[in-house]
């Protein structure tokens, strides 16, 4: 007989053990830390024993907790593999499902997909946008495009694109009463930023850029934050302010003149874009076709235009 198991609580508990704490588990599963805590507490009450030793610097499993966490990980892993195989059977042979961040999808991937469609009329691309906070699952997509440090231990990972950082703005800002000629001129403009970055001191922020290129931002400069990277880019195009350009997200707008670089200073970002897919799986012909195409697109991306005079 199979017990009526509390699956949500079991999944939350396994994540706490694997991540070493409630906060990291909450980030992985996309829920609040309080929800994770409640799940684990309910599981302990259901089993009638403690499963974690809670401490100020993290939580570690008891002997029974370790045994249970290993069983959950093994069970969920097998379930995930079976689901992936079943999804592969029912998913149309000619459809490729891509999981991708909205900002990258709208500003880089979508404008290029027409070329893939023209070159591969027998294949179809379906793009599912997500925040990238939950680990890639082959059950939901064939390929994931993830932003960060490339740390995906349970998946096959290939570098797609590095990025460089530099200020960008609409050309119209250069003819205003305070044209952008020096870094100090930023005091007259709004600095546009992405508020959803979650990489701590490696976030590609204005302060990161300034420190790397050796300049000081004007004290008290106004800032405006947006919830998606493509909104930051669009706000810059509309003349709302000056954005810290992230190379893949602004390269097309720079090349067609919607954006310009007011300053020459440029630096490498600590983060990159990665292709993620199921570990150990044999790539089908359609996946190999897409990987070859997108890597070619990345390799032939235009060079960053120089700063305006």
User: First CA to last CA: what distance?
Assistant: 76 Å
**Could you say which structural class the secondary elements and strand pairing correspond to?**
alpha/beta
* Order of strands in the sheet with most strands: 4-3-5-10-6-9-7-8
How large, in whole angstroms, is the Cα Rg? 23 Å
Ranges where pLDDT stays below 50 over 5 or more residues in a row are none
Commentary on this structure:
With 309 residues, the chain is of the alpha/beta class. The chain has helices spanning 7-19, 22-29, 33-47, 63-90, 102-119, 206-213, 229-237, 247-255, 285-299, and strands spanning 52-55, 58-61, 95-100, 124-129, 143-148, 155-168, 191-194, 223-226, 242-246, 267-278. It contains nine helices and ten strands. Strands 4-3-5-10-6-9-7-8 form an eight-stranded mixed β-sheet, sandwiched between helices. The relative contact order is 0.14.
Task: Give the SSE map.
Layout: H1 7-19, H2 22-29, H3 33-47, E1 52-55, E2 58-61, H4 63-90, E3 95-100, H5 102-119, E4 124-129, E5 143-148, E6 155-168, E7 191-194, H6 206-213, E8 223-226, H7 229-237, E9 242-246, H8 247-255, E10 267-278, H9 285-299
Parallel strand pairs: 3-4, 3-5, 7-8, 7-9
Antiparallel strand pairs: 1-2, 5-10, 6-9, 6-10
Helix pairs in contact: 1-2, 1-3, 1-4, 2-3, 5-8
Give me a quick take on this structure.
The protein is of the alpha/beta class and 309 residues long.
């Amino acid at each position: 007989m199979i017990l009526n198991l509390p699956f949500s609580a079991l999944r939350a508990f396994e994540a706490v053990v694997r991540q070493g704490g409630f906060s990291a588990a909450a980030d992985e599963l996309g829920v609040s830390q309080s929800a994770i805590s409640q799940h684990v507490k309910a599981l302990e009450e259901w089993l009638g024993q403690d499963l974690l030793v809670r401490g100020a610097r993290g939580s570690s499993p008891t002997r029974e907790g370790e045994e249970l966490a290993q069983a959950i990980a093994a069970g969920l892993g097998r379930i995930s593999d079976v689901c992936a195989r079943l999804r592969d059977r029912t998913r149309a042979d000619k459809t490729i499902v891509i999981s991708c961040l909205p900002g990258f999808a709208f500003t880089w991937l979508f404008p290029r997909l027409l070329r893939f469609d023209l070159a591969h009329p027998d294949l179809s691309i379906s793009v599912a946008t997500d925040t990238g906070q939950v680990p890639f699952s082959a059950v939901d997509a064939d390929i994931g495009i993830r932003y960060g440090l490339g740390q995906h231990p349970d998946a096959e990972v290939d570098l797609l694109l590095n990025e460089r950082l530099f200020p960008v703005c609409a050309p119209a800002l250069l003819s205003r009463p305070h044209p952008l000629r020096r870094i100090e001129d930023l005091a007259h403009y709004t600095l546009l930023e992405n508020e959803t970055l979650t990489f701590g001191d490696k976030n590609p922020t204005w302060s990161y850029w300034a420190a790397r290129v050796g300049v000081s931002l004007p004290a008290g400069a106004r800032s405006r934050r947006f919830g998606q990277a493509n909104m930051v880019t669009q706000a810059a195009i509309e003349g709302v302010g000056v954005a810290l350009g992230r190379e893949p997200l602004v390269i097309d707008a720079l090349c067609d003149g919607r954006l310009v670089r007011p300053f020459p200073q440029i630096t490498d970002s600590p983060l990159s874009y990665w292709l993620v897919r199921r570990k150990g799986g044999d790539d089908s012909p359609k996946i190999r076709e897409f990987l070859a195409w997108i890597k070619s697109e990345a390799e032939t991306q235009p060079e960053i235009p120089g700063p305006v005079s």
